[in-house]
Amino acid sequence: MNTTTKRAMTDKWFLVVTEYDLIKQKKSKNFSTVDQLCEVFKVHRKDIRKYYGRWIKSGRDPDSLLPQKRGPKPGQLKLLSKDEERTIIKIQRKFQANEFEIFHLIKGHFKTHPSVSTIYRTFKRYPLNDKRKLNIKRYEKRYPGELLHADTYRLPLTLVTNRKRYFVFGIMDDCTRLTYIELIDRQTAANVSQAFSRAHKWFNLHGFSPEKVMTDNGSEYTSYTSQKAKETHFFETMLKIFDVKHSYTRPYRPQTNGKIERFWKILNNECILCQRSTLTVDELTAELNGYMYRYNYQRRHGALKYETPLDKLKKIADLLPKY
Q1: Nearest-CA neighbor of 142 among 211, 214, 200?
Q2: HSE-up of residue 198 (Cα within 13 Å, Cβ side)
Q3: Rounded to an integer, what distance in angstroms lies between the CA atom of residue 132 and that of residue 174?
Q4: For residue 173, which phi and psi values (nearest 5 degrees)?
Q5: From the CB of residue 24, how many other CB atoms can be counted at a distance below 10 Å?
Q6: Which of 7, 18, 13, 2 is nearest to 65 (CA)?
Q7: Domain 148-319 falls in which CATH fold?
Q8: Whether 225 contacts 233, CB under 8 Å
Q9: If DSSP codes are grouped into helix, strand and coil, which group holds residue 118?
């Protein structure tokens, strides 16, 4: 910050505090009371006392009248990282532990051991008390196949040896979180439709048939140029053949399809970022197929009460009558 800018920001308060100092000593030639000073400069008595105290404490340094940063001073408040906050919340949800129990449980596992108050403040930032839990609305369909979430995910160029752009088509069942993924080389209606037809067969092998699918408004899923173009669209036509209804997310609102969007983040963290070297197309396909197996049949999900999607499907199947 240059000298001109500093003067522009401190001139007013420098005049105020110097006149205030003279008024206190009864030597001011311009004002007889502090109220007159406040009226002329349009300031409050409390603000004058704040700036005057800061000015006196600094040895009457004009730079002390510059605006100061708000919030706690560095080192005054120990903040947790997002990963540490998530760890604390996971412990509380899984073991129903309070802040004192968690304080002793995480000792030695964090870089900076948080206090009990910090852990309690972490609780307050998340709706975890019983009263708020009752208000949480978990949007989950009642039976498998009632709604599927479909989307495509663009892979980084550095992942494949031929440095060609590839995509992953994914489709997830809302109720059980069973997810089918497939590598495609182009994000077109024809490629997506072929992948969906194989996914439809895969879901049928698990014992249920999709009734409705939700997608975004991309050109690979639908068309908005005219009603005729929409009816003859490749993907829309394929859904009519399978007798599957089609719903769309609100434009620029990916949260509507949040379950599959969250899956892309998990896939990126647990599968794609783990690759230390570039892969061939066959190796990448094998890696995605292996992760699909782990995700559906081995990985436990917090949203499913720490069960696998296959366990959730079995529980629903057990409720059905057997003939």
Answers
A1: 211
A2: 13
A3: 24
A4: -80, 130
A5: 11
A6: 13
A7: Nucleotidyltransferase; domain 5 (3.30.420)
A8: no
A9: helix
Question: What contacts 197, CB < 8 A, 6 or more positions away?
Answer: 238, 242
DSSP 269: I
Burial 232-267 (b: 16+ CB within 10 A, else e): ebbbbebbeeeebebeebeeeeeebbebbbebbeeb
Phi, psi of 180 (to 5 degrees): -110, 130
CA distance 239 to 243: 6
Those residues with Cβ within 8 angstroms of residue 101's Cβ, 6 or more apart along the chain or in another chain: 95
Q: Which amino acid is at 41?
A: F
pLDDT per residue, tens digit, the chain (323 aa), is 678 887 888 888 889 999 999 998 888 888 889 999 898 888 898 989 989 998 999 898 888 888 877 655 655 555 778 888 888 888 877 766 788 888 888 887 887 788 888 888 888 777 655 665 555 556 788 889 999 999 999 998 888 888 899 999 999 999 999 999 999 999 999 999 999 999 999 999 998 999 999 999 999 999 988 888 898 999 999 999 999 999 999 888 888 888 999 999 999 988 887 777 788 999 999 999 999 999 999 999 888 888 999 999 998 887 654 43
User: At what angle are helices 82-95 and 116-124 packed, to 10 degrees?
Assistant: 80
